[in-house]
What we know:
Number of strands: 12
Order of helices and strands: HHHHEEEEEEEEEEEEH
Radius of gyration: 24 Å
Amino acid sequence: MxxxxxxxxxxxxxxxxxxxxxxxxxxxxxxxSDNWYVFLTSAKNIYTVLDQGAKTSPQSRxxxxxxxxxxxxxxxxxxxxxxxNDDEHGxxxxxxxxxxxxEIGVSLPGYSNSIVLNGGPxxxxxxxxxxxxxxxxGVSPPRDLKVxxxxxKPILARRTPATTxxxxxxxRGDRKYxxxxxxxxKEIPDASPxxxxxxxxxxxxxxxxxxERLTQSTQG
Length: 220
């Protein structure tokens, strides 16, 4: 493995880490999308650089060939690889904004399961035996909405803020890639874009350490 490839790949890793840090502090979806693109591109470039550096010896080529196969077989690594390709060459995006959601009358133990709604589009609407009585997605509940319990129990309302999520992506040959749920044989605990990016960074750090050891052994 060419030592120059190691140094260049380390530079790409630093860019990927900086992009991940910016993802965590992005205040708008536009900023998040921009930083996500930087992350995808710099992460993919690590492989591009190592591919060039591995051409110096049969041992390096064999090592990198095995790593490319792992990327192909692993749901998380392959998703990020295809996401970068789609972002660069297609018209889609691998991240989307899931709209804010307001749930009124969430049926949980101790909370009302029989209510009446008045206001907005509702006129004395009685609902009983529900899982969730009414949901407003992407819009706020009407200002004049009044919800009254009919069984004397408190009414549970729940708000889920807008959040950025991974989206299905398209690849060549009409292939589709869903957001990954596993990595290296283990379930992904945090499948958000930042959670997936964090796991990818950890993997790429290990990849570069292996490449560095390979460089030292071939030069020695």
